[in-house]
Write a structure and sequence with these properties.
By secondary structure, this protein is of the alpha/beta class. It contains 6 helices and 7 strands; from the N terminus they run βαβββαββαβααα.
Length: about 180
């Protein structure tokens, strides 16, 4: 069984903001499988699904970003999913807009959701897909990540999100290493 996690903040005011790239990507992935988030538990919204004969849980923690790990650890423990079968999707300022970056190990890079996950798991070794949002040029970081992309950025963001969905499919069908080879350019 796989656990696919999209990071974001709950609430209408955060929908489709840069910081909710993880939510948007897992929503797109769920849509591609014809499933909707129909369960509320483990401090999150989730759905059970199947892809390529693999069982998976798609999770959107509802704890707010800085406590995301609390939801994730509960799901991993309850369903006895090994950490190497988890993929976390989130926004990343160090990845250019329109690009994605896949990694298996690394620090939080200052991302509060990742800090929480690493703290709860006690390891930084797990699969992750970073969706590039770029750096702010005209405002502070918090204001930047909590606002929606500009009209000029939207097509680039959409392309990155589509690539993230395809990378997830390759990771589950073949391997995360194959997905990294295909999508880390």
């Amino acid at each position: 069984m796989y656990l696919l996690v999209g990071l974001g903040n709950p609430g209408r005011e955060y929908e489709h903001t840069r910081h909710n790239m993880g939510f948007d990507v897992v929503d797109m992935f769920a849509d591609s499988l014809g499933v909707t988030f129909d369960r509320d538990d483990f401090k999150g919204k989730y759905v059970k699904a199947r892809y390529m004969d693999e069982d998976l849980i798609i999770l959107k923690p509802q704890t707010y970003m800085n406590l995301s790990g609390e939801s994730i650890i509960q799901v991993l423990n309850f369903y006895k999913i090994p950490v190497d079968k988890m993929i976390v999707v989130y926004d990343d300022m160090d990845t250019p807009i329109g690009h994605i970056k896949l990694k298996i190990k690394g620090s939080s890079g200052g991302h509060n959701g990742m800090k929480s996950i690493i703290s709860q798991l006690g390891t930084d070794v797990f699969c992750r897909i970073k969706v590039g949002i770029g750096h702010p040029v005209d405002r502070g970081i918090i204001d930047y990540v909590l606002t929606k992309p500009s009209k000029e950025e939207e097509p680039l963001i959409l392309e990155a999100q589509k690539n993230a969905v395809e990378a997830i499919k390759v990771a589950i069908k073949d391997s995360f290493n194959k997905a990294m080879t295909m999508y880390n350019k």
